[in-house]
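Something for you to look into today, if you have time. Just paste the record in under my message, thanks.
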Amino acid sequence: MFKKILIANRGEIALRIIRTCKEMGIQTVAVYSTADRDSLHVRFADEAICIGGPRSKDSYLNMQAIMAVAELTNADAIHPGYGFLAENADFAELCDRYSIKFIGPTPSQMRAMGDKITAKETMIKAGVPCIPGSEGLLDTVEEAKTISEKIGYPVIIKATAGGGGKGMRIVHNEAEFEKNYNMARNEAGASFSNDAVYLEKFIEEPHHIEIQVAGDQYGEATHLSERDCSVQRRHQKLVEEAPSPFVDEALRKKMGDAAVKAVKAISYEGVGTVEFLVDKHKNFYFMEMNTRIQVEHPVTEEVMDFDLIKEQILIATGTPISGVLYFPEKMHAIECRVNAEDPMNNFAPSPGKITALHTPKGYGVRVDTHIYAGYTVPPYYDSLLAKIICRAKSREECIVKMKRALEEFIIEGVKTTIPFHIVLMDNEEFRSGKFDTGLLERFDYVSAIKELDL
């Protein structure tokens, strides 16, 4: 077992990792930027060292500074959390060079799934269903148009190094193709320093379903069922739940088997998710694999009664996977992401000082957060303030519980997405479970928020 783990992250995920480490008897080291000196992960870690200025490139993306702290504090492992360096193969290699265990997959496994074209080729060889599209990166707009005519419109242009919805454009016909092609490449270049793009058939009325997976150092793999992440805005997830109201037992088995195939195809080590798009006829297609812990991992933890961070750490020590393959009892969990954003102003970021805070309590209510009254939300990082996760014996009960909990959640001083989530819980399409990733395009949440004067 590790004696000391450095957590190369911030915010709620850093706290989440610290808590499990303490329960496992492992010492923790926090790193922080000057903007995060008053953050709770700094307070609750056994040791904490500042690694740079407020901007990510000067601190949480500063690999040499993080490795220097790991050496200084005699840390024998690094947990990257999510975001920042979590899927950076160069950082994982640097950890190997310093003989410090990177809690996650190997650099080669990360690269195999980090580039979407390589990942798709790997999945096709493994027999995992993939979306029709270009066989590799696109060289010219003429080539892209030819492929689009062959597979049929609509199509979607995607950045190979993409994420978070950047470098993606949906094209409905040839007339609008060139403009969207150029926009996707320009955005990809600006966001990822890599303007390479590829093409796929655009799946209409899609459901975004991901399978939680785990693999160990001995080639064994398992899955822990699915999460439905179809409530999105501009490809950014806002609400996640498990089990999916759309997935039946037959589809769950097919997708779970395909996800395990994907994990075994690269001898994956660690926890991660295999993400699929599922059309209205329940045909599913591989989209990507996230080689890290997910923001929404608590949804699975609550339904499965299983600590995924602990499993990550155990796998990294060489422990075989636990082999959980089922829901231990009929439960349902929903997670709402509470961001420092104004839903009445196109979800504009809202940094600033939190003047008052009250978090909801009660049976089946969990809040993962790093904020407190007096905390200043910095403008430099992701706007996630908290995750509220509710669990109940049915989806209907869970929605009622979530609405009650959201109405108890008080954050003053900054705008948040709480009003959006409250009205979503009353949305008929959401409550029915018969929704897809286009839900927010059909839902006039601004009027709903105004009507309730939230």
